[in-house]
Amino acid sequence: MATHEGTWAYRDRFHERFARTYFRPFGDLALSSIGVGTYLGDPTDEADSAYREAIVAALESGSNVLDTAINYRHQRSERVVGAAIDDSEIGRESVFLATKGGFLPFDGERPDDPGRYIYREFVEPGIVDREELAAGQHCMAPAFIDDQLDRSLDNLGVDRVDLYYVHNPETQLQARSRADVYDLIEATFERLERRAEAGDIGAYGVATWDAFRVGPSDGSSLSLPEVIDRAERAAGAVGHESSHFEAIQLPFNAYMADAFTAAVHDGRSALEVASEHNLHVFTSASLMQGKLAREMPDRVEAELAGKTRAQRAINFARSAPAVTSALVGMGSTEHVEENLAAGTDEPIGANAFDAIFE
């Protein structure tokens, strides 16, 4: 697991390569403000090899935040992350490792008959009840999350993950009422509180796409204040004074800035609520799957430091309030070198960031 001693030793080793605020606190840990995402890429041995090399390069160049999910590239991403940690000269105690559960994963490749695969692997053995499924591919039942966390630990080859996300809980709104989804979130959080107590996870959170960026009238909306309240109730149910709910992940970039601009949580944005409750924010889609490396609004780009447009886009995400780390896909060592170079520049200050949206 990531430790205070390990992550601060890592910070001390690399901090002179980067600008002053490149490393940021997560509790008593020191985390790089640029992290490695592992969502994109084909489920092939060739992509596995490139990812493995890139992750090792990132760890050995100043990025100690690795983000994955059991369904990414049909479990291949988790397995490659685990292998890369083993390959690297950087010890596990210096690496902040996050993964996610919620989508039913395939195993290595997409099966010819996905429905049959899900029935055989999950429904028939009793891991998932049909009534718990949403969109034919998502489950958030506590027992299922338990199973997925265990599988993730096996895939990664570790005995603990530092942050475990419930993955896109808004998917459940396709199958049940918002009130029922909140109840399900609370029940799952209670299970994760117990897994934290057992030492299997350091903290937990929610990774979303739409949920915290859209208004209450939208069918994908969830209230971040309500989710925070459910975490506190879950902690109380197991006898914890405070919850282990410590982070959210959501898209944030120059084209998708709703987490900062949309006051959809009782007049506050998701980033405002996160800041008020001392939640850490990890941004996904920081480069908008490469689009921002090609184009960016002029008024935004003019405020940002960075030799390349990709670096300027990364620094935009790193500049937002409450953001601990901007996650960026790095499928090659060339990507690692360019992306981490963004950390040699300071992100823009709060006033300049606010001015972009005036």
Automatic annotation (TrEMBL):
InterPro entries per the UniProt record, alphabetical: AKR2_Oxidoreductase, NAD(P)_OxRdtase_dom_sf, NADP_OxRdtase_dom
Residue ranges occupied by any NADP-dependent oxidoreductase domain in the UniProt entry: 34-343
Signal sequence bounds: none
Taxonomy, superkingdom: Archaea
Pfam families: Aldo_ket_red (PF00248)
Name of the protein this chain belongs to: Aryl-alcohol dehydrogenase related enzyme
